[in-house]
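Technical note accompanying the year-one report. For the benefit of new consortium partners, we illustrate the data format agreed upon in the data management plan: each record pairs a sequence with a structure-token string. No post-processing was applied to the example shown here.
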Amino acid sequence: MTTPRFSDLNVSTRILLGPGPSMASPRVLRAMATPPVGHLDPDLLQIYTEEQQLLRYVFQTENEWTFALSGTGTSGMEAALANLIEPGDAALIAIHGYFGERLAEMATRLGAEVDRIERPLGEIFSLKEIETALKRKRYKVFAIVHAETSTGAEQLHIGEIAAAAHRYGALIVLDTVTSLGSIPVKIDEWDIDIAYSASQKSLGAPSGLAPITVSERAREVIQKRKSPPPSFYLDLALYAKYWGEEHAYHHTASASLHYALREALRIAAEEGLKARFARHRANAELLWAGLEEIGVPPFIPPEYRLPPLTTARVPEGVDPHRVRTRLLKEYNIEIAAGFGALKDKVWRIGLMGYSSRRENVLLLLAALRELLRS
């Protein structure tokens, strides 16, 4: 067999303004260049300890079970459900976009009896709607997406929703894949049972790790399961032993990805959450105003519009995919199309983490203005 030959790696440096991944700070990229060490090396274990402290800071929690799973945000979603749900358990899933649908699909595959409540794309739930659904029967798990990446909508009243779930005996699972690091996520104040996220969005690290945090209430339920979770790899009790004082072997984690996430979290802590949220809001408002001026208004009403992810309405008669292709080829800017029914109706524009910069907003607006004229 002939030995295959390929040219040197030559990947373009993009301006990533889609729904993820976001751009990584030069500090994060430098951290990734640190030589890897063994998965139980004392230096890496020290990084884990610091990473846990920083994750508790961004999650705003004191939960002991707070760590990063080796996997994408989808692994966090699956871990949250797989560790709580046993076959035959009743689960209520709130769906106001694509990722709510994914929660329902996973819960069904895990053998749960799944009930759904739904809102049209671009809308969010009222507390009354959720409370009415929770009254129907005794649910073990209630799951909802905080920041729906497919529509750009922020689900409001999370604390009150969690209180309602607990009042009717359900554990609450919260998807914070897009929200963590760009808008307030208050795990302890809201009394959330399990929340999960992803490294590549508002935290500003590469894809491949899924931060997760588990309350004492949820931890007790997991430890009292009738049978082990169906996934060995995503068994949170085993993860806790790996991250805890005994550091029991579970899997071979990527040192490089943990270097990157720890540095991204350190940047977030140095900036401070209040300042970080204000930066995301200011850049989003600059984007929203500019989109209105060029005839590409945001799809979501201002009262629950997401600062890190904007859906912009495609003007009548414009081919959204042609514009996206030209943005990438001519301006080196990546944005994304919509999902499902919104595929040809909106562009999804992400201003997350290091990507949330004033110069990126102004460049994108200028590029869109030119492309829509031609």
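Partners are asked to follow this layout when depositing records. The two ends are 50 Å apart (CA to CA).
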